[in-house]
Amino acid sequence: MFGLFNKEKKESLDKGLEKTKESFFGKLGKALVGKSTVDDEVLDNLEEILVASDVGINTTVKIIERIQNRVSKDKYLGTTELDSILREEVVALLSDTSDTDLKEFETPPNVKPYVIMVVGVNGVGKTTTIGKLSAQYKKAGKSVILGAADTFRAAAVDQLKLWGERVGVPVIAKGMNTDPSAVAFETVQAGVEQNADVIIIDTAGRLHTKVNLMSELTKIKRVMQKVVPDAPHDVMLVLDGSTGQNAMVQAREFTKATEVSSLAITKLDGTAKGGVVIGISDEFQIPVRYIGVGEKVEDLQVFNKKEFVDSLFKKN
């Protein structure tokens, strides 16, 4: 279980998933009007609703099959039980990939510095996620250093510097059009010299040809390993939840290009496509580590599958 959920965090999560919940249960309610048992028509409607909520075809089929198995075992299963069955099956799917031992903004024991390399296309909230992440690590008592290795956009370097100033965290930057691996090397070197707990490296947000992307990220990893041999300890892919299936496509491209070890899914508060969290987690078998459910720093939350599903299925 992830760190304890306080009242404010739970309210923020409930609010952030409101659009997804209203859309999903509004459609489900209409589909069940006049129905008392879970028959083929109910399952067909449920399938359509799950796909429309951006859960994804493969994951939807898996959920429907699991429910069909339960219906066939219990002939008297009614539509009133469908909510709780759905809830159980979604939690079960997420359980397959969740990091059950990760605590709130703690680093693994005996790993110092803990090096995170962040990947993702422009516009998904990558730099903002890094800023919020560094603020929360700092709040948890960790010393943090950031590396502005997205050197293809001046805005990315400037934005990271602004976040550094805002949260009081040093940023290593060499400006635009410089070698990103040189920035990463200097950042890790500075982190080791300053005895930092956490080093976060921002990388270029372009889905250019996978060959280029792969060679660039491989080079960044290689130079970091000259200083910290097992770096990076986490390759985090940031995805924009509001883009639905497009986020799924990006996850597919990046997981082909590099070894992604965790996911951060942002902008869930502005969309009814929150089901994409379930689909991406299931399809790629990579843990969702953080979700963004609002503008505030605290609205980047450590993903807790039970609390997430609870908010999604909560009746007003």
Summarize the model shown.
By secondary structure, this protein is α/β, with parallel strands linked by helices.
Tally of alpha and pi helices: 12
Rounded mean pLDDT is 89
Cα radius of gyration in angstroms:
21 Å
Strand line-up across the major sheet: 3-2-4-1-5-6-7-8
For this entry, what is the oligomeric state of its chains? single chain
Protein structure class: alpha/beta
* SS elements, strand count: 8
The percentage of residues in β strands lies in 5-15%
How can the largest sheet be summarized?
Answer: 8 strands, mixed
How helix-rich are the residues, as a percent range? 40-55%
Task: Provide the low-confidence segments as ranges.
Answer: none
Distance between the termini: 25 Å
Helix/strand order: HHHHHEHEHEHEHEHEHEEH
Shape: elongated
Subunit structure: Part of the signal recognition particle protein translocation system, which is composed of SRP and FtsY.
Catalytic activity: GTP + H2O = GDP + phosphate + H(+)
GO cellular component, one term: cytoplasm
GO biological process, one term: SRP-dependent cotranslational protein targeting to membrane
